[in-house]
Design goal:
By secondary structure, this protein is of the alpha+beta class. The chain is built from 12 helices and 24 strands.
């Protein structure tokens, strides 16, 4: 596929945003756009959502981003982890032994002082349908078995040729913007000629999803994760969020082996060896090949085309950062596309998608790679380059020379996540995060700031909340103010009253949204 190949089919359809890829990130982008009032079209070459739980956990920050959308309640309810639940991590020759090491971990109660949202243990195969339903309820159209064949772009938009694989009929779509959320082998990225950087491949793997009763080799707590060293069945077995459903993954020796070599008979024998249960009854649910690698696109945008998720950054699974990072991409990009489409922002705003997300994604991929390199080492090398998990998931900072701090401490500084604080309001107890949504929010500690916000709300999507109790966490005085972006990141803050709040707030919004560029266009 080439972004410059001639476009012969007639223009059949016009949409504001065309999203290529209907997986976690493509559907999240569509949902966030719909939440902003923009109805996107999603095309996905597969026949439906994922049947494999490749991503299996979503961090609290990711759930926060979904909190104001119509998917939030079902995500939290379906993926909730019971407090006090335990899981075991095993290293052994087989599940039956000999055991090399065993440790248990208890899932503590949700830390409501850090976030109003829980970590959710939810497989990708169950998360994607939730996102799909929520996006479609908001007016998104998703077309499965439709594949992008070619695209070109000009100053006004993108022209794409798409083929319906059910009918083998090609048609064209004219979109103002295109988002490539089409995976690690992204045809969109390849067509744009965008290279990648990073450590590269850590090796190919093959996984199968299977149902089996492993209770005969269970220990005092349920198995969560096992590293197996058997010479003929080495690999890992991981629990999923469905009872008696497991993932088994092992190395694939490319090019000597391929997926077709792993027949049902071979899988059955291998799983019986790996579990140590010679007569294990099991049901296989398919096989998929994947590569553990660290690669980050050299650019996340080219003109009116943007990359998100695995198309923009590939990282090893250690830390469960990959899918979460992709959803954070979607939240960042969606509000900016919406602001631009609605005429609230200048083109410079879209350039900040690359400048904000690429450094964070590169730093996150590096952390996943570092964790992979030390996996299985009895005496890991110097860990001075590692940062804590919460610093990766909560602590990233846009515009900083070092995007990830060593440890996470909420500060309310510009470019960071707006901190969660419980507020006692007339309608009940709420988090500051519940005040955010599909526009800018001004948290005001005085009438001067709130009056300025109300005046400006006639020009841009801006809601004002005059509340107390949040200021200390945001690093300001009681009469200060904080401007929060639609993605829950701090855009600006003022420690106290200012002589001309309206002018200062207006100038700040103009700068954040590149509104002078927008006004010069009109």
């Amino acid at each position: 596929m080439s972004p410059g190949m001639p476009m012969n089919p007639p223009q059949d359809l016009r949409v504001p945003v065309l999203i290529v890829g209907g997986g976690l990130v493509g559907l999240s982008t569509a949902l966030f756009l719909a939440h902003q009032g923009v109805r996107a079209l999603v095309i996905e070459k597969r026949a439906g959502t994922s049947i494999h739980p490749r991503a299996r956990g979503f961090h609290e920050r990711t759930v926060e981003l979904l909190r104001s959308t119509c998917a939030s309640e079902e995500v939290e309810r379906t993926g909730a982890t019971l407090s006090g639940a335990t899981g075991g991590e095993l290293k052994a020759v087989t599940l039956a032994g000999p055991v090399l090491s065993w440790k248990t971990q208890s899932f503590t109660a949700q830390e409501t002082g850090l976030s109003p949202c829980p970590f959710v243990f939810l497989g990708q195969d169950r998360m994607e349908p939730i996102l799909l339903r929520a996006a479609c309820e908001q007016g998104t159209e998703v077309r499965f078995r439709h594949e992008l064949m070619a695209f070109s772009q000009d100053a006004e938009g993108v022209l794409a040729t798409v083929i319906d694989r059910e009918t083998n009929v090609a048609y064209s779509i004219r979109a103002e913007y295109l988002v490539g959320a089409d995976g690690v082998r992204s045809p969109v990225r390849e067509a744009l000629g965008i290279g990648q950087r990073g450590r590269g491949s850590f090796g190919h793997n093959i996984s199968t999803l299977f149902d089996a009763d492993l209770s005969p080799v269970q220990r005092e707590v349920p198995l969560g994760f096992a590293i197996l060293t058997h010479p003929e069945a080495g690999g890992v077995i991981v629990a999923t969020d469905v009872k008696d459903r497991w993932i088994y993954a092992t190395r694939l020796e490319v090019p000597r082996e391929s997926a077709s070599d792993f027949t049902e008979t071979r899988w059955t024998q291998r799983l019986r060896t790996a579990t140590g249960l010679a007569d294990l009854a099991l049901k296989l649910h398919g096989t998929f090949v994947w590569e553990a690698a660290e690669r980050v696109a050299e650019r996340f945008a080219s003109g009116r085309v943007f990359l998100a998720g695995d198309a923009a950054h590939q990282m090893p699974p250690m830390g469960a950062f990959g899918a979460n990072t992709g959803i954070h991409d979607a939240a960042n990009l969606a509000w900016k596309l919406a602001a631009r489409l609605k005429g609230h922002a200048g083109p410079g705003l879209l350039a900040t998608y690359d400048s904000e997300r690429r450094p964070v994604a590169a730093a996150t991929a590096n952390q996943a790679a570092l964790r992979t390199l030390r996996l299985g080492k009895e005496d890991p090398d110097d860990d001075s380059d590692l940062v804590e998990d919460r610093a990766v998931t909560f602590g990233y900072r846009y515009g900083a020379e070092t995007p990830l701090p060593k440890t996470f401490v909420p500060t309310g500084e510009v470019g960071t996540r707006a901190p969660h604080v419980w507020l006692d309001l007339e309608e009940g107890r709420k988090s500051t995060l519940d005040l955010f949504g599909n526009g800018f929010v001004l948290l005001a500690g005085s009438e001067a700031w709130s009056a300025a916000g109300r005046l400006l709300s006639e020009r841009v999507p801006l809601r004002v909340h005059v509340v107390d109790g949040w200021q200390q966490a945001y690093g300001i005085e009681d009469r200060g103010a904080c401007l929060v972006r639609p993605d829950g990141m701090v855009a600006a803050r003022w420690s106290g009253p200012v002589p001309d709040a309206e002018h200062i707030l207006a100038s700040t919004l103009d700068a954040v949204l590149f509104r002078e560029e927008a006004l010069s266009e009109s």
